[in-house]
Amino acid sequence: MSTAVGDEIRLTNGLIDVGVSMVEGLRISRYGFVEGENLLASAGRRSVVTPLGVWKPLGGHRLWVAPERMPGSYAPDTLPVKSEARSERSVALVQPVDGAGIEKRLDVSIGEADATVTLTHRIVNRTCWPIRVAPWAISIVAGDATAIVPQPPFRSHADDFLPARPIAQWAYTDFSDPRWSIGAQLIRLTPDARRAAPQKIGVGNRSGWCAVQRDTCVYVKRFPWMPDAQYPDYGCNNELFTAGDYLEVETLGPLEILEPGAEADHTERWGLFADQPTSESESDEYRRLQMLAASLDMPAAA
Fold this sequence. Notes:
Elements: E1 2-5, E2 8-12, E3 16-21, E4 27-33, E5 48-50, E6 53-55, E7 61-66, E8 82-87, E9 90-95, E10 102-110, E11 116-125, E12 131-141, E13 146-150, E14 167-169, E15 180-182, E16 186-189, E17 199-203, E18 209-214, E19 217-222, H1 232-235, E20 238-243, E21 246-252, E22 256-258, E23 263-273, H2 282-294
Antiparallel strand pairs: 1-2, 2-3, 3-4, 4-7, 5-6, 7-12, 8-9, 9-10, 10-11, 11-23, 12-21, 12-22, 13-16, 13-18, 14-17, 15-16, 17-20, 18-19, 19-23, 20-21
């Protein structure tokens, strides 16, 4: 069912609840088990001054536009949104056109009796000219968690001469930083409040899943990989970012040329799993996370 809780709409099926902001832009502020901890986090008092005004990440899950540009990506987006209940467990949200000429929409639907959430992100070009952009779904998660991306399945040099996927580094990426743990099967990024310097990578994630481990709870994202599409940031559909205790887990849709009035969609499927202690074996950990991801049916791409 859906209920109003303060300035939010709260969707719940009795197992999980999802908090959807109504007054601070197009944001999901909560995802967790009923009466359990929130896997999403506040961004604190962070802000960025832009020619279009002051932009604030605020926290939770938001919709952005790639490639990252100043000031376009940072157009202030904290105005109240319009909402339409589609059912007892789903809601459609529309954010006013921002200073960069983008209208953002988000459809949120929770499962009937499980811990899944389906999110359809949509950006609409409300400018007067074509733009080349991609929907960019960003979740700020709890700073005491670890973000995890799978490595490509191993194949020997004799079996496969070609590269398996792109991996993008930013000018400030430093793999000697202890916040990174890079194994044969998993890449992990763990925030450290004592280390304010940012770290980021992007990958072309053909596996179509990534995860967040917090204590014994695992939050899994499923998302598409379209092999013939062009993705932002040298071909990335999945990115991780941290600075201090701040952690973002990001997925991206393909780049498209949108004529005025045209739109682009990007879907994520979330799952939340309790009682999932970590294993000392990377192979066991990989198999466990892969199994959890496989249990989430991913809607077909439009």
